[in-house]
Amino acid sequence: MTDAARRTVRTVVQTTVALAVMLPAIVDAFGIPASLPWVALAVAVAGGLARVMALPGVQALLPGWLRTAPPDRAQGGDGSGA
Fold first, then answer.
1. CA 58/CA 30 separation, integer angstroms
2. Confidence band, pLDDT 50/70/90 cuts, at residue 80
3. Alpha helices (H) in the chain, listed in sequence order
4. Radius of gyration of the chain from Cα atoms?
5. How far apart are CA 27 and CA 47, in angstroms?
6. Most buried among 20, 21, 37, 74, using CB within 10 Å?
7. Over 50: is that where the pLDDT of 79 sits?
């Protein structure tokens, strides 16, 4: 995969996750009733996607260039890997 293709895929994934995280605020800002079935489903899916993407196991499955934190920080948090 070329470097440009990697950057494009990473940007699309990051944008999708960012929109998923912001979806509840977007719905609220536009005044869309959260009780509408499609809005409730979209917010639930967005929340689930954001939580799944943040799991350490999912981060470990992603290629290094797509992870949100370097592998050493994802493991121990202090760079020690423990």
1. 32
2. very low
3. 3-30, 37-54, 56-61, 71-75
4. 16
5. 13
6. 20
7. no
**Dihedral Cα 58, 44, 23, 7, nearest 10 deg:** 20
Query: Which two structure tokens, joined as six digits, stand for 40?
Result: 């409730």
Tokens 């639930």 sit at which residue?
Answer: 44
Query: By the 8 A CB rule, do 34 and 40 touch?
Result: yes
For residue range 13-69, what is the model confidence (pLDDT) as tens digits?
878 877 877 888 888 888 888 778 888 888 788 778 778 877 888 878 877 777 766
Q: What's the CA gap between 5 and 30, in Å, rounded?
A: 34
| Burial class for 74, CB neighbours closer than 10 Å (0-12, 13-18, 19+) | middle
Please report how many Cα atoms fall inside a 13 Å half-sphere around the Cα of residue 70, on the Cβ side: 7
